[in-house]
Amino acid sequence: MRRPVARKLSVLAVSAAVVSVGAAAPPQSTSAPEKVPVAVGYGGAVSSVDADASAAGIEVLRNGGNAVDAAVATAAALGVTEPYSSGIGGGGYFVYYDAKSRKVHTIDGRETAPLTADSDLFLENGKPLAFADAVSSGLSVGTPGTPATWATALDQWGSRPLGNVLKPAERIARQGFVVDDTFRSQTASNETRFRYFPDTAKLFLPGGQLPAVGSTFKNPDLARTYAELGRKGVGAIYHGDLGDDIVDTVNNPPVDPASGWNARPGDLSEKDLAAYRAKLQKPTSTTYRGLGVYSIAPSSSGGTTVGEALNILENTDLSKASEVQYLHHYIEASRIAFADRGRWVGDPAFEDVPTKELLSQRFADSRACLIKDDAVLTSPLAPGNPRDPAACSDGGTAAPTTYEGENTTHLTVADKWGNVVAYTLTIEQTGGSAITVPGRGFILNNELTDFSFAPANPAVHDPNLPGPGKRPRSSISPTIVLDRHNKPVVALGSPGGATIITTVLQVLTEFVDRGLPLVDAIAAPRASQRNAAQTELEPTLYSSGVRSQLEAIGHSFKLNPEIGAATGVQRLPGGKWLAAAETVRRGGGSAQVVHPAP
To answer: What value does the mean pLDDT take over residues 483-495?
Structure first.
């Protein structure tokens, strides 16, 4: 993700309203906008990974738009400045709190497999393709859901037309943004496969070279695409010429013959695009410490898995636990919830997903009793049966957690009326499929690689195998927490593939149970257990004495340099909002408010 050059931010954790001050970047003739990870004020708030994108949302709020308008504007801007993480070639999940009705609504904007797809989508000669071979190919591309998500959100709850809220992003694409170390390094990490596709190389390797830090990166093709969407609406994608270009690109990937790359063609059709719908659906909901926790239901596993883990932790007083015992219980709750996720969660249009039962306190209690203070569960742990819970039962057949790409982006928005949006959008891994639609300025997703290529365990039904029009399981977990009066307390989310679930769970428990200010809960060092033999730790925890104390109980760890990159907003008294983002991860985020003072 794009970040300022060599900028580190120090956070003073005195209270939830503390403002962090950024150290100045080294002088440059051109520099990226400064990022600040926490801001407090009035009139609304936006938090994202990128200063230009957050500013786009603030511009819309300042001009009278609501949280939904600002969320779409921010997302569109991220499609310019964070093109390897998001864009109209991808999908995502949108969670919205309506202040007037005090209710939470959601949109499933996940990509779908072609209508011709079956469970053998990623098999070749009877064997699963290597992940790298599948990613940079037409086979990996699902029908984009992001444009339909934007249109659905604006139609349902917005106050501005699509063309209006796309203007800031169109301007950024046309005028350009400042390249920093991270944009360059992410381009470099994808350079080999970007060169497979001439249109991608032309756009993201200008003059055949990596973009220079401090240079201005322009994307006039994307500016024209946004202008076309503004004029014609998203029908240009799902029923028009832009959609035809997507189909041609997926089915005939424009690969450089000299590269020798086998860019396997997909089988997307105009019928797939025309059939696509972003789904309005009920959120998942559970209670935790007297608060209402709302998130996205399947096809994402985020809401059910975070919710189940919270229910498992409900009867443990984490506020009084030592750091070791807090982390132990958090890790074990994550392990159990992931075991159940792998067995039960898939696209509910194809699978009988027991969403209500997974979120029942009865089921959580039957699983929580597996956790011991002085011992560690063995992974992969077998799932429980939410439809027939048996106390402390783990008698099923275990299946390991399959891999998900770890790049995505999350934004959180609140407006002066009290409406809130938590929105996570993605093109799957960094750089997506690496295939740019010629002349259109955006990369297509590789979201279908989130399907299981083959059953994770042949002895167990896998709910995440490909199917016609099926949505691959996701871990995206945009979450809104309400108080007993159904008013917002906090909203948050994160990128990070399957680590999204553990990141959201850890930030929530650090904030709710451990009493950390939101920015510090986001900044706290992370652990991630996903029903694996080893738990991943960020460097601060990995090198700490806490690690050895947890190992003495039986935990095993491996190092992960960076887990997630959360953003959030918190409602404060007197009409104030606090926006918070990462202080260091992925270069730090950008928290902004409309008015710092009343």
So the answer is: 98
Rounded CA separation 298/323 (Å): 32
What does each C-alpha distance from 401 to 55, 217, 335, 381, 492 come to in angstroms? Answer: 37, 38, 10, 10, 24
Question: Which pair of structure tokens corresponds to residue 205?
Answer: 């390797």
Instruction: Say if CB 583 and CB 405 are below 8 A apart.
Output: no
DSSP per-residue string spanning 163-212: HHHTHHHHHHHHH-EE--HHHHHHHHHTHHHHTTSHHHHHHHSGGGSPPP
Q: Does residue 545 carry a pLDDT above 60?
A: yes
Does 152 participate in catalysis according to the annotation? no
For residue 290, pLDDT beyond 60:
yes
pLDDT in the model for residue 522: 98
126 band by pLDDT with thresholds 50, 70 and 90:
very high
Q: Mean pLDDT over residues 464-492, rounded?
A: 97
What tokens appear for 274 in the block? 């025309």
Whether 19 has a pLDDT exceeding 60, the answer reads no
Alpha helix stretches (DSSP H) within 435-535: 499-512, 518-523
Catalytic residue among 146, 187, 200, 408: 408
Phi-psi region of 125 (alpha: psi -120 to 50; beta: other; left: phi over 0): left
State the amino acid at position 28 in one-letter form. Q
Q: What is the pLDDT of residues 348-380, one digit of tens each?
A: 999 999 999 999 999 999 999 999 999 999 999
Domain range list for the chain: 9-280+403-595
In a 13 Å sphere around the CA of 569, the CA atoms on its Cβ side amount to: 38
| Beta bridge mates, 22 | 9
DSSP letters spanning 41-110: EEEEEEEES-HHHHHHHHHHHHTT--HHHHHHHHHHHHHHHSTTT-STTSEEEEEEEETTTTEEEEEEE-
> Which tens digit of pLDDT belongs to each residue from 412-464?
999 999 999 999 999 999 999 999 999 999 999 999 999 999 987 788 889 99
Considering the entire predicted model, what is its pTM? 0.94
Residues contacting 338, CB < 8 A, separation 6+ = 305, 401, 498, 501, 529, 530, 531
- Please give the CATH architecture assigned to the domain spanning 9-280+403-595: 4-Layer Sandwich (3.60)
Phi, psi of 406 (to 5 degrees): -100, 10
